[in-house]
Structure formats: C-alpha cells, structure tokens
C-alpha cells in the first residue's frame, strides 16, 4: 500500500529509538524530517521542508527543543504528538504532580519547593527519609535522598548556588520499593508493554546502570498508566510507577512525553516503534 499520510518528524539526537520510529513511520506515511539541533524554526509560516504535512511528531533529548518544535508545528496549524501543553505539563514535576493529584492518580506525598531554604522544613513535615527532585530534568539528575535534617540542610545550602529551575522543585516522601520500578507505555488508549527497571541503589534509571526485565501489564498498571497520561494530555509516553513495599500499592512518579523504548523492545519483543507509527497514522486519518 502506498503511503498517503504526510507527517513531519522532529528530532535533535538520532538515538536508536528515533531511528526505529522513523523507519516504521516511513513504511506507513510520507515523512519530512526536521533536525532541530543548531537551527531556528519559523513561527506562523511553515518552512519548505515541512511540505504539506498533516501532523507532527516531536521527539527530543533536549526538553526545550522538544517543546519548541511542538510549539512551532502548532503555530503552522498542525496537531502534534505530543502536544506542547502535554510536553510542558510533563516536563515540570510540580505542574505534573498537581494535575495527577487533581485527577486522583496516586502519587507520593509532596511539597512544592518555592525557595531552597524551605527544603529542610518540607522534608521534616513529610518525614525522613525524603527525596528532593528539581522541577525540570531527566535521568535522575540532581535527585537527592535526604536521610535526616542535616542532609536536608546541606542540600538547601548547596541549592543556593544552583542556577535556574534546578533549585526549585518537589520534596517527596521516600517510597521503599523492592529494588525496582515499572516503566509502562501508553499509546493512545492502549498499554502494550511494561518493563521492570532494577537498580542496586537509590536510582533505577537505565542510564544510571539499571537493568531491564519484562513486566506484566496488570489491570492496575494499565489503569494507572492510562489515567496518568490522560491527566497530562500525553498521547504517547512512558509512565514511571513505583511499588510500595509497605502496602503493595502502586504510585505514579512521572510521565515522559518523549520516552526511550529500545530496552523495552529488547526485553519484551514488543515492537513499540511500529505501534507508535500505527497510532500516528491513525491520528492523521481521523
């Protein structure tokens, strides 16, 4: 079947994930590719390389490039997977936690930190150990475990020398997990795959040396994943879920609007890229 849908594909770094997705999209649609690194994008008037695109797919390692490519595409009159609003909400941990809480999605108890000097007070209110997370950032950067008030005070002082949003964020309750968390995937109204991410210490991020293994998509995992993505307006994304060893309950930590999926494909055999491509083409044809 000859591809009929026309899509513009944004990316900044060609990870294996982007290569896999682009390959699957090209089997199903006419794809115009825009590399967002080291360039400017016009607002309002689409550039020539966008062609007659009907939909945009935004991918990015840089959070700002991801957001700005979606904003540019929307200024050209295109809908974007994911939308700029979903990207903005997901990238800000305070914003996303508010939306999740408002929709009744279970999350760790949290305080919004408006000034670094408030970290010790918030941590003490939640109870030690507690966790500080900067408002923006990924791969666990600057996420800190606070075991007592002394460590909370030391972090508070250190954050005074940090620039920008990284000094503000959340103090959350520490969830005692069984050495792993869950990364599940939403694609539209489906949850096709999930993995366990194992770690030997506090962090389970695969970029920090964690190990991936297949995880069952239970009814609870499916329900939480879809509710979290719906709360933030994310059509395609990864949801980080933690299991509490205290009561066995599941809590949502965050939603990633440009998630990596290569390890999920490797350990589960589920072709996530093909499923995303099918969904994107179906969006064009609505």
Helices and strands in order:
Layout (H helix, E strand, L loop, with lengths): L4 E7 L4 H13 E7 L19 E4 L4 H13 L3 E3 L2 H8 L1 H10 L7 E4 L5 H8 L3 E5 L9 E3 L2 H11 L9 E5 L6 E8 L6 E5 L12 E4 L4 H14 L3 E8 L6 E7 L5 H7 L3 H13 L2
Parallel strand pairs: 1-2, 1-3, 3-4
Antiparallel strand pairs: 5-8, 6-7, 6-8, 9-10, 9-12, 10-11, 12-13
Helix pairs in contact: 1-9, 2-3, 4-7, 5-6
Strand fraction equals 15-25%
Mean pLDDT metric: 93
**Broad shape:** globular
Give the biggest sheet: 5 strands, antiparallel
The secondary-structure class comes to alpha+beta
Radius of gyration: 19 Å
- In CATH terms, the superfamily of the largest domain is ATP-grasp fold, B domain
Number of strands: 13
Summed up, the domain count is: 3
- Provide the succession of SSEs: EHEEHEHHEHEEHEEEEHEEHH
CATH class of the largest domain: Alpha Beta
Strand order of the largest sheet: 11-10-9-12-13
Q: Helical element count? A: 9
In CATH terms, what is the architecture of the largest domain? 2-Layer Sandwich
Helix content: 25-40%
Low-confidence stretches: none
How many angstroms does the end-to-end distance come to? 19 Å
The CATH topology annotation of the largest domain reads as D-amino Acid Aminotransferase, Chain A, domain 1
Family: Belongs to the RimK family. LysX subfamily.
Protein name: Lysine biosynthesis protein LysX/ribosomal protein S6 modification protein RimK
Organism: Aeropyrum pernix
Cofactor: Mg(2+)
